[in-house]
Amino acid sequence: VQLVESGGGLVQPGESLRLSCTASGFTFSTYIMSWHRQAPGKERELVASISSSAGSINYADSAKGRFTISRDNAKSTVYLQMNSLKPEDTAVYYCKAIRSTNTYWGQGTQVTVSS
After folding, report:
1. Could you tell me if 106 and 97 are in contact, meaning their C-beta atoms sit under 8 angstroms apart?
2. Terminal-to-terminal C-alpha distance of the chain
3. Dihedral class, residue 74 (left if φ above 0, else alpha if ψ from -120 to 50, else beta)
4. Each residue of 87-113: pLDDT tens digit?
5. Which of 100, 67, 102 has its CA nearest to residue 82?
């Protein structure tokens, strides 16, 4: 089982990034996928989640109106489009897959928003 995140980097406030998380080793299309983030000295927090069929999507208040989660089950990939980035969005972003008692995490990708 593997979840590999990509797309992080250093951007200026107001810019955008698109994170990707590609899965292998399990039946991606049957799992709820989510993005989480952890800033230095803080607990990991949920950013957004998407159901297996993309019929149910939820966002943290901090992400509403700026971030969009989506998935492509044919490519076993979940995305997080992040617009209007702010310095407080700086964190390591992780994707997670969950179904029943099975939970998998990626290794994370760093997002830094700074001028």
Report:
1. no
2. 37
3. alpha
4. 999 999 999 999 999 999 999 999 999
5. 67
